[in-house]
Amino acid sequence: MTQEITRATFDEVMVPNYAPSAIIPVRGEGSRVWDKEDKEYIDFAGGIAVTALGHSNPTLVDVMREQAGKIWHLSNVMTNEPALRLAKKLTEKTFADRVFFANSGAEANEAAFKLARRYAYDHFGPEKHEIVAFYKSFHGRTLFTVSVGGQAKYKEGFEPTPAGIKHCDYNNIEQLKAIISDKTCAVVMEPILGEGGIIPADLEFAKQVRELCDQNNALLVFDEVQSGVGRTGTLFAYEQTGVTPDIMTSAKSLGNGFPVGAMLATDAVAKSFTFGTHGSTYGGNPMACAIAEAVVDIIDTPEVLEGVKKRHDLFVAGLNAIDQKYHVFKEIRGMGLLIGAEVVDQYAGNAGKFLAAAAEEGLFVLVAGPDVLRFAPSLIIPEQDIAEGLARLEKAIATVVEQTQAA
């Protein structure tokens, strides 16, 4: 007999670190999702910037089936063809010479931070170990990555956390100058703050960060877990900054929902990960890498990348049109299909109300902190889905505005 599964089942059997909505999606196709009651939703969330090619993408389904019929997993005492093909493509398409595969963005960042410290240890000694990162940044949920991340709430109750980490304000070069030193082994930054409110790096700021790293013999680490693999309209966002990092991380869109992460590095830096210094049981497994290779092949094309820029303009125009009627947004910002709409002071702290109202109207959106609505849909979302989703968003916003005025 099949056991009935409901939202209440979560409260019975799952660790309560999440508070999922009552919606239980059971089927997806492209940028549409259906729940257990067969209610349809348009997906502007993309699984938090993950399903870059939509749900149940037929090409990826075929690749998965083909690889599943060959081999799923090998220990890392051997290599495999899909991993090598994917690594070769990533190095050919980026600044990097070497790749390490992991299972997630947090794992890729963990590897990056360890590599940065190991490189400094090898070349300058143990005193050069400090990492500088930015307030409001997010780099994952491991103990090391929450420590580098610039949001204290994620560290609370888990202290003592790893030491030797400093923070300053994003896009504030003077603060960075004040804390970077000859003890700094790396500066870690997102080219566009994701969880921190969808804030792109000022180009001059990014350039000066690179210069400060060079002056202090520190590595520049770009976290492109959310911004990478076509999300911003280029394969990786660093291409738009005019700055080249020494280490870069990727995940999310890389697997379109299949767990995979990657750390990319120059040859000179990667050499510090000598035999036995780091590893991952599942990292680089054939299934993940076969799917990720297909994702990269599809996304890194003029058609898709130019399409991201066109869809960006459609979103921004639509959000501006909504704002002209309801005056709820302070600023609309972002790159490509990673877009943030900061709410006006009247709704500060209540971005979640718009998210909940949107779900009622059959639309998935995200927040990036309590004040910003975030949109991170499929990179190939049909234009008619954008139009319909924005229409549903307008209804949701109208509802929240009406409720607020009536209160």
- The H/E string reads HEEEHHHEHEHEHEEEHEEEHHHEEHEEEH
* CATH H-level superfamily of the largest domain: Type I PLP-dependent aspartate aminotransferase-like (Major domain)
* Spans of at least 5 consecutive residues with low confidence: none
Q: Which structural class is indicated by helix and strand composition? A: alpha/beta
CATH topology of the largest domain: Aspartate Aminotransferase, domain 2
Main beta sheet: strand number and arrangement?
A: 7 strands, mixed
Tally of domains: 2
Coarse shape: globular
The largest sheet has its strands arranged as 4-12-11-10-7-5-6
Count up the helices.
Answer: 13
User: For the residues shown, what is the average pLDDT?
Assistant: 96
Distance between the termini: 48 Å
Beta content comes to 15-25%
Catalytic activity: N(2)-acetyl-L-ornithine + 2-oxoglutarate = N-acetyl-L-glutamate 5-semialdehyde + L-glutamate
EC number: 2.6.1.11
Subunit structure: Homodimer.
Binding site for pyridoxal 5'-phosphate: 105-106, 138, 223-226, 281
